[in-house]
Amino acid sequence: MPKDIEQVDKDIHAFTQIFDDAQAKSEASRSKSYQPGGLLEGKTIALKDNLVWDNTITTASSNYLKNFKAPYTATVVQKIIDAGATIVGKTNLDEFAMGSSTENSAFVPTKNPLDLSLVPGGSSGGSAAAAAANMVWGALGSDTGGSIRQPAAFCGVVGFKPTYGTVSRYGLMAMGSSLDVVGPFAKNVADTKLIYQVIAGQDEMDSTSRNPLPLEKNIELKDLTFGLPKEFFGEALDPNIKEKINNLVTKLEQAGSKIKQISLPSVDLALAVYYVLMPVEVSSNMARYDGIKYGYSASSSAEINLEEVYLKSREAGLGAEVKRRIMLGTYASSAGYADKYYLKAARVRQLIINEFEKAFSEVDVILTPTVPSLPFKFGEKTSDPLKMYLEDIYTVPANIAGIPAISLPVGKINNLSVAAQLMAPALQDFKLLEVAELIEGLNE
Amino acid sequence: MELTEAEILKLAKLARLDLSKDEITQYQKDIGNILGYVEKLNKQNFEKKIEVANISNSQNVFRKDEIKPSLPREKTLQNAPAQENGFIKVKNIMEKN
């Protein structure tokens, strides 16, 4: 099995590491909780390389952690292993999960299996590509502003961002701690749901974690009302994608669902809120990479003092986008600016949360496109950071609001995939997965 | 808007980043552009009092005060750039007199 993966991955570069002894390694990591016949028995999984596994190099696709051997195992990784899965490797990402194309990986960019001249999306580009190219049965990624859903859309697979807190973040290298969520990639919704069942649940090692609501009784399309927020169907949206979403809406109406046009006016501010809150949290979370405890260090140089160890280790080990966000976050949280930027954004965040809650009193599920445009070419969006940030306009609101959101393929344009995004109220993850599975069935 | 070189240098010092001249110029532009984009937040006025969002809805989450094993020393040190006698070694933090 590894030999095939290596062969296929030569063109795609989804993996930062492929384990030769994958099955033995996973079996050796099983805890007392393992029992034969688990939900993932015999399944192969790839892990985004910002999830730690004891005694295994975990790089976050950064030069800073190129040789970092993790000293413990993430809760989600242990759960996957104890459910019987084999972890075949670690996948490529934008460095420290910052980016929307995987071009920010300090190592090598990953290519989109649907078209090797195009990006796979990011930051979980490697996991999306590994699942799309059938190198693994499923994969784990992380989503802070769209980093599971957008690459899922670009690569033509299912990608699910659970409700904030319903999957433990213990062992996920933190990027934006009030936004980060670990979630699954798979070829279909049923497999995605299986992975989520294994990884979801409160964890004493993550005090922001909680259980999702249990699965509801039989859900049928004819009993559901779908909301279409007009802010997601404006000028930014590629008309070809809009057409495919409209086709889906027609099918839903034929199946008996109610469709309601809604408005979420604060959503236009969501990206601005995100690019204030997230960099502030990043600048705080990245402070630990200081050249002292682990990772790249300039300390071997005899002449430099302590402060220079910090300065030089961080300068050499961290990439441009990471540093840009650290700088932005430092500004937005600094004395004299914190009120104007950070506090303002944190309050607009509550506005957005309130608006979603109000919308969900009128509709069951919100339906939107996942991304405004189709996958782009390498280098197309790297000259202007803002251009890249705008890729996330439809995905960011769900992270701001903490609600579950899933991307699933609903159509094709030539050999590229078009995806729809579904969102539900917080903690209704299993209901959302049921609805997604029904829609998947509609399209077949 | 564009930040001044002095402002970038101040941020770099706070963030412990040793930027090159090219990086300073680039960040003046980039951060200025992004701040220009997020300016729209300042046009948002709140009619009534809106709280700062608390996304996890959690309050104090406690655990029982019982001793559990912590990360073993060898594991803690396995990635340390410099170590001595079972400690992580750092540069001098006090000046000799």
Features:
heterodimer; A: 444 residues; alpha/beta; 11-stranded mixed beta sheet; 11 strands; globular; B: 97 residues; mainly alpha; two-stranded antiparallel ribbon; 3 helices; flat
Describe the structure.
The complex is a heterodimer of chains A (444) and B (97). By secondary structure, chain A is of the alpha/beta class. Chain A has 14 helices and 11 strands. In chain A, helix 8 packs across helix 10 and helix 8 (270-285) packs across helix 11. Chain B has 97 residues and is mainly α. In chain B, 34% of the residues lie in helices and 4% in strands. Chain B is built from 3 helices and 2 strands. Chain B has helices at residues 5-14, 21-38, 73-77; strands at residues 83-84, 87-88. Chain B has a two-stranded antiparallel ribbon. Chain B is flat and about 55 Å long.
Topology of this protein?
The complex is a heterodimer of chains A (444) and B (97).
Chain A: H1 2-12, E1 15-18, H2 22-28, E2 44-48, H3 75-82, E3 86-91, H4 125-132, E4 138-143, H5 149-155, E5 158-161, E6 181-186, H6 189-199, E7 225-229, H7 239-254, E8 258-262, H8 270-285, H9 306-317, H10 320-333, H11 339-360, E9 365-369, H12 385-389, H13 396-401, E10 405-413, E11 416-423, H14 429-443
Parallel strand pairs in A: 2-3, 2-4, 7-8, 7-9
Antiparallel strand pairs in A: 1-3, 4-6, 5-6, 5-10, 9-11, 10-11
Chain B: H1 5-14, H2 21-38, H3 73-77, E1 83-84, E2 87-88
